[in-house]
Amino acid sequence: MRKKINIKSINYRLGQNIARLRMEHGYSQEAFALECDISRACYGRCDLGLHSFTVDRLQLICNLLNLNISDLFITKEKKYI
Question: What does CATH list as the number for 10-73?
């Protein structure tokens, strides 16, 4: 049975923010997953909130995007998720 996407979950909202930031920095999903040392499929599940990022992985993402970890939790509208 497939997991249902819950768009209200913190994992989903975080995944969507990271996806937006990734695209703003010009990374494809596949290239970004490679830089994060995870499979594209695993990264795709994180984008959808079906899998969560570890804190270590979040730090790596911040390093790649030159962001602070708190930036991952702020929406495009400058609101916290």
Answer: 1.10.260.40
Question: Residues 49, 12: contact at Cβ < 8 Å?
Answer: yes
- CB burial readout 15-44, b (16+ within 10 A) else e: bbbbbebbeeeebeeeebbebbebeeeebb
Residues 7-66: tens digit of each pLDDT: 889 999 999 999 999 999 999 999 999 999 999 999 999 999 999 999 999 999 999 999
What angle (nearest 5°) sits at the alpha carbon of residue 2, between those of residues 52 and 7?
A: 50
Full-model pTM:
0.89
